[in-house]
Amino acid sequence: MLPDPQTLAVFMAATLMLNLTPGPDMMYVVANSVGRGHRAGVVSALGIGAGTIVHTLAAAVGLSALLMSSALAYDVIRYLGAAYLLYLGVKTVKGKGASIPTQRLQRERLSRIFRQGAATNVLNPKVALFFLAFIPQFVNPSRGSVVLQFLMLGTMFNCSGTLVNTAVALAAGVVGDRLSKSAGFSRAQQWFTGSVFMALGARIALVGPR
């Protein structure tokens, strides 16, 4: 069901390079890791991975193509995603700072971080557009079901991206842990994290679909 080995090797090389290139998802993970600790960053990466699964399934069955064909539907999803990120940013900036500089999120709040990561990814229609533009180049109808090939390639792309984002989360978390030893850094963490969220929201809202 997979492409031939040569094509698959090209796909994996391109996938790794794309996932290593800093983008909105990586910046979102960095913001959470620096502002909230490495656990929040890792959970954000997993949430983004869950959102990518939704995009993979949607593209495989043609829902993304339907979304891309409707300018209204595209804009609705785009502005919902932008509004959600702006909301998270404002909420983070206006929230109460940690009373102890090294304080981290409680375990029960990590589920919320996961849902936020998934939502920001699902509500970014550019991810759907990317999947429709990138993965079909490596699908070969002569090698079996196009849908299954798409799902397999999308899963491989997602696994690579999740691993990269997890590594970035751990590295950014180390930086955040060291900086958090400063008594005045708690508020700065909030401003950094919130500002990144708002910048990502503005980017989604202002950058055109094509």
List key phrases describing it:
210 residues, mainly alpha, 79% helix
**Sheet with the most strands?**
none
Number of helices: 9
Molecular shape = globular
Number of strands: 0
- Spans of at least 5 consecutive residues whose pLDDT stays below 50 are 97-108
Residue-averaged pLDDT:
80
Q: What's the alpha carbon Rg, rounded to whole Å?
A: 18 Å
Helix content: over 70%
Order of helices and strands: HHHHHHHHH
Q: How many structural units, i.e. domains? A: 1
The fraction of residues in strands falls at: under 5%
Structural class: mainly alpha
Distance between the termini: 31 Å
Can you characterise this structure?
The chain is an all-alpha fold. The chain has one domain. 79% of the residues lie in helices and 0% in strands. The chain has helices at 5-20, 24-36, 38-61, 63-69, 71-94, 107-122, 125-134, 146-179, 185-206. Helix 2 (24-36) packs antiparallel against helix 3 (38-61), helix 5 packs antiparallel against helix 6 and helix 5 runs antiparallel to helix 9. The longest helix is centred in the last third of the chain and has 34 residues, at 146-179.
